[in-house]
Amino acid sequence: MTTAQDSENDQTSGPAAAAGGGTGPASRRGRGIVAATVSFVGELLITVGLVLALFVAYSLWWTNVLADREAGRDADRVRQSWSDKGPGELDTKDGVGFLHVPAMDDDPVLVKKGTDGDILNAGVAGYYTDPIKAALPWEKDGNFSLAAHRDGHGAKFHNIHKMKDGDPVVLETKDTWYVYKVYKTLPSTSKFDVDVLQQIPEKSGATKKSKYITLTTCTPMYTSDYRYIVWGELERTEKVDADRTPPKELRG
Question: Which backbone phi and psi does 99 adopt, to 5 degrees?
């Protein structure tokens, strides 16, 4: 005989009970797995974010600190060598002189031979030896072409975009101040554009032999896709006196 109690038991064990089974142990385990997965993914994303933040801090801050320290030591060695007797202007990797660009920064930038990463990463500017060899300032004519980092590793050309026509660019060697004046900028060109380094840089509008200087660096900032170019032409030279009195352009 089927009693009322038996009917109730049958109802609670039928389809309705199956539909309400989400409160059982298996369902709770499923929700626990989902929650654990979401938590793991969230923690992983946070960890990745922290690693990326540390990498950016290392690339844009700590490499500057390390490069400035190394460049400072190298600069001290160059100036010490200048106090010794010997030739004043040498084409060596130790450093040919110091670049002064008031529009970018008040601090002088040591200039070395070469533009390889291990050179520029030391917080200096380097003059090109290839694909087109730079003419050194004391040569009869030509283009003294330089490169430096715009961000990280000293970021010596970080503010190149602040330069404008008429701004002075001064190279200090042991015996001579070379005073250039900016006459043309090219905000963006291909990183493969070697014409900007030519001894007569026609892309700047130059048409004759003279003593030019070319500054090159990466653009846009924090990328290396293109190159930012600034050209200048020698205006005059001054002999270095016993006090190393800078030219008027640096006495601001």
Answer: -95, 130
